[in-house]
Amino acid sequence: MKNYTSQVEKNQHLQYEDMVEAANRMFANNAEVEEIAEFLVALSKKGETAREVAALASVMKKHAISLDVPEARYLDNCGTGGDGSNSFNISTTSAFVLAGAGAKVAKHGNRKISSAAGSHDVLDALGIPSHFAPGDMSKMLEKEGMAFIFAPIVHPKMKKIGEARQKIGKPTIFNLVGPLTNPVPLETQFTGINRPDFLMEYASVLRMLGRERAIVVSGAGGMDEASLAGQNSFVLMDKGDLIPFTLTAEDVGLEYAPLSAIRGGSAKENAGMIRDVLKGKRGAKFDTVVFNTGIGLFANGMAESINEGIELAIDSILSGNALQKLEAVVAFSTEIGKVAVAK
């Protein structure tokens, strides 16, 4: 590990194979927390490359618990987080709207990191606990067409790496790889990063990891979601081609709104906001969700354009399908909980 740290400290980018070796050493039982921390800090100071991110993501996925799921065109809409916007849980809400529109959604996620309530904090508040066994996640995906994949459950070998990240206390390359390590095989993906300078590289990582089609967004106001607050930068990765484009809310028939209009609160408060949106309450939160869902449906290939995707998203909510999907997942979770107690 020290050899790779030394290379990186000299501002040398690691080749893919070298990063694979360094990553495997981080996951090894005899890895030292201090050495992991030194390597991650050195990488961060140098600036991570697409090759390094792709190599780490591939190793992390190999060390994950595999999920037995039916073959389908799965979509993940998890972003990197860490944008500091304190927004309510946009991608979690969008997951129900995507599923209500017929997409197969396997949403990777975690507890709060920089927001007041992370995806799994708010899911707990909705009645969807995060202590599912891997088999339960697979069953949910098969039965409901959507599942929430709780990162600490499917990535059990992260203990020492987690200690190193805590010791550092700042973002590292692992903040970038989170959305890339879903153990469910993904053909399509819609993800966001709050680093516009890394947008094209991140799209090329998705290409290296074998996605057929994906969209990466860096949102207005530094968000890792598409925002109503100005111009959003995107890259569409389609069958290997990388196509950059920009969009504002007004470009797709939605209204401008400041970031303050989508601010969240506690897990309980955010759960209430999610229910309000899924019940059809109009406003900036509704528009932000249908904007991001529309892009997700376009990324998944269910819509021929983002405008068409937004129409499908609005229909998913106003028809009651998105709310029904939430209630079905809550009911499934309750049943799983009863079985666990009975055992």
Entry summary:
The model has no long low-confidence stretch (mean pLDDT 93). The termini are far apart.
Give a structural overview.
Its cofactor is Mg(2+). GO terms for molecular function: anthranilate phosphoribosyltransferase activity. By secondary structure, the chain is an alpha/beta fold. It has 2 domains: 2-62, Transferase, Pyrimidine Nucleoside Phosphorylase, Chain C (Transferase, Pyrimidine Nucleoside Phosphorylase, Chain A, domain 3, Up-down Bundle), CATH 1.20.970; 74-327, Nucleoside phosphorylase/phosphoribosyltransferase catalytic domain (Pyrimidine Nucleoside Phosphorylase, Chain A, domain 2, 3-Layer(aba) Sandwich), CATH 3.40.1030. It is built from 15 helices and 7 strands. It has helices spanning 2-9, 16-27, 33-46, 50-62, 90-100, 119-126, 134-144, 151-154, 159-168, 173-177, 199-208, 267-278, 284-300, 306-318, 321-342, and strands at 74-76, 104-109, 146-150, 188-192, 213-218, 232-238, 241-247. A 7-stranded mixed beta sheet has the order 3-2-1-4-5-6-7, sandwiched between helices. Helix 5 (90-100) links the parallel strand 1 and strand 2 (104-109). Helix 3 (33-46) crosses helix 9 (159-168). The chain is globular, with a radius of gyration of 19 Å. The mean pLDDT is 93.
- Sheet with most strands: 7 strands, mixed
Number of helices: 15
Radius of gyration from the alpha-carbon trace, in angstroms? 19 Å
What is the CATH architecture term of the largest domain? 3-Layer(aba) Sandwich
Helix-strand sequence: HHHHEHEHHEHHHEHEEEHHHH
In total, the number of domains comes to 2
Shape call:
globular
In the CATH scheme, what's the topology name of the largest domain? Pyrimidine Nucleoside Phosphorylase, Chain A, domain 2
Arrangement of strands in the largest sheet: 3-2-1-4-5-6-7
Count of extended strands: 7
**Stretches where pLDDT falls below 50 for ≥5 residues?**
none
Residue fraction in strands? 5-15%
Question: CATH superfamily assignment of the largest domain?
Answer: Nucleoside phosphorylase/phosphoribosyltransferase catalytic domain
**Class of the largest domain in CATH?**
Alpha Beta
- What class, by secondary structure content? alpha/beta
> Approximately how much helix is present in the residues?
40-55%
Q: Quick check: average pLDDT?
A: 93
N- and C-termini, Cα separation: 44 Å
Subunit structure: Homodimer.
Keywords: Amino-acid biosynthesis, Aromatic amino acid biosynthesis, Glycosyltransferase, Magnesium, Metal-binding, Transferase, Tryptophan biosynthesis
GO molecular function, one term: anthranilate phosphoribosyltransferase activity
Binding site for anthranilate 1: 79, 110
